[in-house]
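Hello Y.,

Per our agreement to keep a running log of every chain we model this quarter, I'm adding this entry. I've kept the format consistent with earlier entries: sequence first, then predicted structure.
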Amino acid sequence: MKITAVIPAYNEEKTIKEVATIVNRHRLVDEVIVVSDGSTDNTVKIATKIGVKVIDLTTNKGKGAAMKAGVEQSQADIILFLDADLLGLKEEHIDKLLIPVIKGDAETTIGIFAEGRMFTDLAQKIAPFLSGQRVVRRRTLDDIPDLDMTRFGVEMALTQYIKGNNIKLKEVVLEDLSHVMKEEKRGFIKGFMSRLKMYWEILKNLSTTRKVR
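Predicted structure for the entry above:
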């Protein structure tokens, strides 16, 4: 049973080294693929130095397209998705995401932040389906239509498909883990506008019920 970690990244030079390094040394992960979604900073250079596989998309196509690009370059049975801007990632967080799927207790898992930072914890309590920390079996991903077209609404699309097809999902709590907020990365105005764009992409996906093709 092969496990690949796919880490979509857009201008994450400050955090990609720590995230990719921790995942790369995890005993259960066979392969790490960092997908740079049109990054204009040093994300690609830093990830390449770590020794993981890097896919460098020349233009920004959105998170869904980046995730799909990573999946297409892997032959793994299980895919671990992690955000590139995580703060406080530890190997035990990866264990909590992977082990229920490996053991067959769930078809997919989703990680929920707790005891990390107030605003990121609160956001996931309100909307846990927005979490980018997931494990999904390959056979499930292969059945989801138009994943690359969902852009920032990819987490919503995954959740809709999983619920719509009665796929066994387990939520796991990831203590002391958080991520860099958009307002911190790009300044308040640009970050807030980026957040609004993300929410718009998510709302567009709310009107679509995703079932097996």
